[in-house]
């Protein structure tokens, strides 16, 4: 089988960028998504459209799952038309979803029992870095998995951190990253809400903070969504309901207190229950009362 064949399951904001990066790197990229139109569009760019993960597994010895959570990972691997039943022994699954570390450990064991390799490989960096092949990967798994994945990882990421031989280590580091990301988004929303409440010009506040010590990557990246009143979900509120939930579940198992994470989680939960779950995560600012949010600016005619 041609070792240039690689499959990508899930062509969302990150998955499509990964698939395109691998295509540029010279791989024959097979792809599938629940949205057939997206798969066909990618085929028009030089990829290979597959009707299911199982269809893909018949052509590829390396499958990259770029889905949202453990439930979707289960579906694309073990559900109807799932990849696992069709993968040849010795094939590799690279799992990019943010999942509980305990799930990553269990999945690695289940795949090993079927003669398959698994790389616990959550990702970070956003859609732009995925599209440029510059995202960060937090990986862990056996040496045999790395040997099979080396060229593929180089083609899809700018930084690949090897965190150990044990599955779950990559996922532990990822949820700690998500702890910080979620808290920073929530804190950014709170800061902007206070500024709006106190009558500070929102654009000026953004300009000052991004050139001051209070800045963070999340403040700089997410606040423009608020300023433009554009809550198109690049990463949705419900993603942080899930991810901060994973953070708190992991800490709860060892009775470790995370007061800031718990508060941020409640903020995202409040935003979701208010109907903003599928909006951009910056929409967490909408939970604050008594403020006038920026409205969409119209271009002069």
Automatic annotation (TrEMBL):
Keyword annotations for this protein?
Carbohydrate metabolism, NAD, NADP, Oxidoreductase
What is this enzyme's class at the first EC digit? oxidoreductase
Report the residue ranges that make up the 6-phosphogluconate dehydrogenase NADP-binding domain in this protein: 5-164
Cite the Gene3D superfamilies for this sequence.
N-(1-d-carboxylethyl)-l-norvaline Dehydrogenase, domain 2 (1.10.1040.10), NAD(P)-binding Rossmann-like Domain (3.40.50.720)
Spell out the family assignment given in the record's similarity comment.
Belongs to the HIBADH-related family. L-threonate dehydrogenase subfamily.
Q: Where is the 3-hydroxyisobutyrate dehydrogenase-like NAD-binding domain?
A: 168-287
Please give the Gene Ontology molecular function terms for this protein. NAD binding; NADP binding; oxidoreductase activity, acting on the CH-OH group of donors, NAD or NADP as acceptor
Q: What is this protein called?
A: L-threonate dehydrogenase
- For this protein, the Enzyme Commission number is 1.1.1.411
Protein purpose: Catalyzes oxidation of L-threonate to 2-oxo-tetronate. Can use either NAD(+) or NADP(+) as cosubstrate, with a preference for NAD(+).
Q: Which InterPro entries does this one have?
A: 6-PGluconate_DH-like_C_sf, 6PGD_dom2, 6PGDH_NADP-bd, HIBADH-like_NADP-bd, HIBADH-related, LtnD, NAD(P)-bd_dom_sf
| Catalytic reactions of this protein | L-threonate + NAD(+) = 2-dehydro-L-erythronate + NADH + H(+)
Q: Does the keyword Chloroplast belong to this entry?
A: no
Annotated active site residues, numbered on this chain, are: 174
Q: What is the lineage of its organism?
A: Bacteria, Pseudomonadati, Pseudomonadota, Gammaproteobacteria, Pseudomonadales
């Amino acid at each position: 089988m041609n070792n240039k064949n690689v499959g990508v399951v899930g062509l969302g904001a990150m998955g499509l960028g990964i698939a395109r990066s691998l295509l540029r790197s010279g791989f024959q990229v097979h792809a599938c998504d629940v949205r057939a139109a997206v798969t066909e569009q990618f085929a028009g760019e030089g990829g290979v459209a597959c009707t299911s993960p199982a269809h893909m597994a018949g052509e590829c010895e390396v499958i990259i799952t770029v889905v949202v959570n453990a439930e979707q990972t289960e579906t694309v691997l073990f559900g109807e038309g799932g990849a696992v039943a069709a993968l040849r022994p010795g094939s590799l699954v690279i799992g990019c979803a943010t999942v509980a570390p305990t799930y990553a450990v269990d999945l690695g064991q289940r795949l090993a029992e079927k003669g398959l390799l698994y790389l616990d490989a959550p990702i970070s960096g956003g859609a732009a870095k995925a599209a440029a092949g510059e995202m960060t990967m937090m990986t862990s798994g056996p040496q045999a998995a790395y040997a099979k994945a080396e060229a593929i990882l180089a083609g899809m990421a700018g930084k690949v951190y090897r965190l150990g031989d044990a599955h779950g280590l990559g996922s532990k580091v990822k949820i700690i990253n998500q702890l910080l990301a979620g808290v920073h988004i929530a804190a950014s929303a709170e800061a902007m809400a206070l500024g709006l409440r106190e009558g500070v010009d929102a654009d000026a506040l953004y300009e000052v903070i991004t050139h001051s010590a209070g800045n963070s990557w999340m403040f700089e990246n997410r606040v423009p969504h608020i300023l433009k009143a554009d809550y198109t979900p690049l990463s949705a509120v419900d993603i942080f309901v899930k991810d901060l939930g994973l953070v708190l579940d992991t800490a709860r198992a060892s009775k470790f207190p995370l007061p800031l994470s718990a508060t941020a989680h409640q903020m995202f939960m409040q935003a979701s229950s208010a109907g903003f779950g599928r909006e951009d995560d910056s929409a967490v600012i909408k939970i604050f009362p008594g403020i006038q949010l920026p409205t969409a600016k119209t271009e002069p005619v």
